[in-house]
Design the sequence.
């Protein structure tokens, strides 16, 4: 079977490699096990295997927008997900399953105006004017999730981030039940300025800020 760097294969690709089997049945089983996802690519049915996705990161996926009035000012939010010390290596093994989950998330999203682009170490999900970026750290020890959108869509950005987090937590619960995942929130100001190393707020600092500022303080801001 010819290697495809996107990790997407047709039923015929598999059938030619294994003519003695009904590969459609096999692919449906693999889909049910969340090892791949059935996709419609311009009318042709394909199966996406993120574990075989070797596409490199494209430049410009999260570039700063043009300054106003050429483009609206954006609000930003984000966080890093980490597992406890000694279990960091698990994040890399979770990631292919996470990308399968994101494909299902995109297919089931209530809006039709959605787009999901995936590569070997990341995924970008867009819906309407909102964008989100999920990346695996270079060492494969943590995930970084960022969202952004026009300032008048701050609430929608918050709910998009929560929806994505729920999708990720479902994978953690399925693959490693009981494993605690820490949420380290990223400074919205650092994200808006596109700093290479954004300021990170550990969970205990966030709890202190919420006690000080009240429950209506937000981690999605300009």
Sequence:
């Amino acid at each position: 079977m010819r290697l495809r760097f996107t990790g997407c294969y047709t039923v015929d690709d598999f059938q030619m490699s294994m003519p003695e089997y009904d590969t459609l049945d096999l692919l449906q089983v693999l889909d049910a096990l969340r090892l791949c996802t059935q996709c419609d690519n311009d009318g042709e049915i394909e199966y996406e295997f993120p574990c075989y996705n070797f596409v490199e990161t494209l430049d410009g996926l999260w570039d700063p927008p043009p300054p106003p009035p050429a483009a609206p000012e954006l609000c930003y939010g984000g966080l890093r997900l980490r597992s406890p010390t000694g279990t960091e290596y698990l994040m890399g093994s979770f990631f292919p399953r996470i990308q399968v989950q994101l494909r299902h998330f995109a297919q089931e999203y209530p809006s039709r105006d959605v787009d999901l682009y995936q590569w070997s170490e990341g995924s970008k999900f867009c819906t309407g004017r909102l964008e989100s970026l999920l990346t695996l750290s270079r060492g494969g020890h943590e995930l970084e999730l960022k969202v952004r959108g026009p300032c008048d869509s701050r609430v929608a950005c918050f709910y998009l981030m929560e929806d994505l987090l729920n999708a990720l937590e479902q994978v953690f619960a399925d693959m490693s039940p009981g494993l605690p995942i820490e949420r380290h929130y990223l400074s919205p100001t650092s994200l808006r300025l596109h700093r290479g190393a954004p300021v990170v707020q550990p969970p205990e600092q966030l709890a202190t800020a919420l006690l000080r500022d009240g429950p209506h303080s937000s981690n999605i801001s300009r």
In short: The chain has two domains: 8-52, 74-221. The CA atoms of residues 58 and 119 lie 9 Å apart. Residues 207-217 have pLDDT under 50 and may be disordered. The longest strand covers residues 74-82.
